[in-house]
Amino acid sequence: MLRLIFTAALILWPVLTLLTAAPAAAQASLETQAEVNAFPLTEDFLTRMEAIQTELQALDLTGQEGDADAGQPVTLDSLTAGVEAKPQVMTVLSKHQVKPRDYIVGYFALMSSLAAAESEDEPQLIDELGKVNPEHLAFGREYKARIQQLIGE
Q: Most buried by CB count within 10 Å: which residue of 30, 48, 57, 141?
């Protein structure tokens, strides 16, 4: 049951944001969903993300905590800026030729692909699956175990 709730949350987060957001934030959420759905997931990208994750886990990033703007909405832009503000993270991303925005959007695309693959047998989520890029769903099916390991599931 907990897995179903987690999976539903990953698929529904843009929709839930729309229900509680102001019009400008709602538009941003639609743009976020479109950007995540349009992200090209490839085995090469997944391999680079795995290498990045391995290196980031080995770093001590405690002194690089960014000053989050309290009360400000979390957006792809703010998350990207947070990554860009961490020199050690930027070094790892550069080494693997992944741009900060691609790291953020790609991570969400990987999570979405996994959530879609794990929930396609859940009748209560069928309508939401229609909003997921079919290529992402296929990618999630094919690389499910690797994505689960990447995101620590």
A: 48
The encoded tokens of residue 133 equal 């890029």
Q: Which amino acid is at 62?
A: T
| Angstrom distance (rounded) from CA 71 to CA 31 | 21
Helix ranges (H only) for 21-129 are 23-38, 43-58, 76-84, 87-95, 100-119, 126-129
CA 42 to chain centre: 15
Distance separating alpha carbons of residues 18 and 40, to the nearest angstrom: 24
3-class secondary structure, 85: coil
Cβ density class 3-20: b for 16+ within 10 Å, e for less: eeeebbebbbbbeebbee
Q: Is the pTM of this model over 0.85?
A: no
Could you read off the pLDDT of 49-76 as tens digits, one per residue?
999 999 998 887 765 555 455 556 788 8
User: The dihedral of CA 15, 21, 24, 29: what is its sign?
Assistant: negative
Backbone angles phi, psi at 42, to 5 degrees: -135, 165
- pLDDT tens profile 23-56: 444 444 777 888 999 999 999 999 999 999 999 9
